[in-house]
Structure formats: C-alpha cells, structure tokens
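Backbone shape codes:
***
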Amino acid sequence: MIALDTPHSAKVWLVPCTAWTDAVDTDTQTTRVIVDDWLEYIFEDSNVAGQQLVIASQFRSLWKRLVNLRLKMAAKARSVSFGQRVSE
C-alpha cells in the first residue's frame, strides 16, 4: 500500500485516481481514504477529505458524460460517412 500523507500530494492525486477506480473505501471519520485496496490517502481534517471526495465524484461524473458524448459524436460521424457516395 502506498501512503500519501502530505496534504499537497493527497489533493493532487485523489481526484484523478478516483476517476478511474473500481473502489473507494473510507474509515468512519473519513480521514483515511483507500482507493482500489492499495492506494491510501491520510487526511488530518475529515472535512477536507469529504470535499476532495465530492470533487472526485463530480469529476468522475463529468468525465463519464464527456466520454459518452464523444462516443455519440464518433458514431454519428461514422454513420454519415458510410452513407455518402465517393465520387470517382
């Protein structure tokens, strides 16, 4: 397990790490956050940890919407290009 117990490193890495994670676990005070059973974040203030988790959740939701939008755009572009005739 890797422990990132400095405030700067925790804030920098928590949001990106939780965007592509399968599991996020916390203790009852939300001072320890464990991502995918191997990456541990330690916070002195549970409010800061809670704020970071909310930001991470919002980031993950936004990322998912952007990926879905991009996939829809790519599918639409493909269907248009397949339907067009190629002039010789």
